[in-house]
Amino acid sequence: MLMCKDLAVIASDYIDGELPVLENMSVKMHLMMCKDCRTFIGNLRASTDMLNAHSSGQADEELIRKIDERVALALKEGSQDPTNQDPD
Ligand SMILES: [Zn+2]
């Protein structure tokens, strides 16, 4: 079974769609059960989208630092994001 720390290592590959099928499935199964990791992936995906949108120009170090802070904060606070509410 995939653990949270394992997921954190491969999260960016998951978002980029670069994981092997089996590993991709393991991540999805973990996300179904783990709210913390759903929040983590959600934030990471939002950051990745921001970076992709930004990548037409040069990467903005200040922006990247802010994103890092946001992700770290989200990880620390758990699931405070109202867009990530659970149906339960
Ligand atoms: Zn987890």
Walk me through this protein's architecture.
The chain is an all-alpha fold and 88 residues long. The chain has one domain (4-82). 72% of the residues lie in helices and 0% in strands. The protein contains four helices and no strands. The protein has helices at 4-16, 21-33, 35-54, 61-77. Helix 1 (4-16) runs parallel beside helix 3 (35-54) and helix 2 packs across helix 3 (35-54). The longest helix is centred in the middle third of the chain and has 20 residues, at 35-54. It starts with a helix and ends in an 11-residue tail after the last helix. Bound molecules: zinc ion. Zinc ion binds next to helix 1 and helix 3.
Main sheet specs = none
**Global morphology:** globular
Distance between the termini: 23 Å
Bound compounds, please?
zinc ion
Low-confidence stretches: none
Separate helix tally: 4
Mean pLDDT: 85
Query: In total, how many beta strands?
Result: 0
User: Roughly what fraction of the amino acids lie in strands?
Assistant: under 5%
Please compute the radius of gyration using only Cα atoms. Answer: 14 Å
SSE pattern, N- to C-terminal: HHHH
Residue share in helices?
Answer: over 70%
Structural class comes to mainly alpha
As for the number of domains, it is 1
Oligomer: single chain
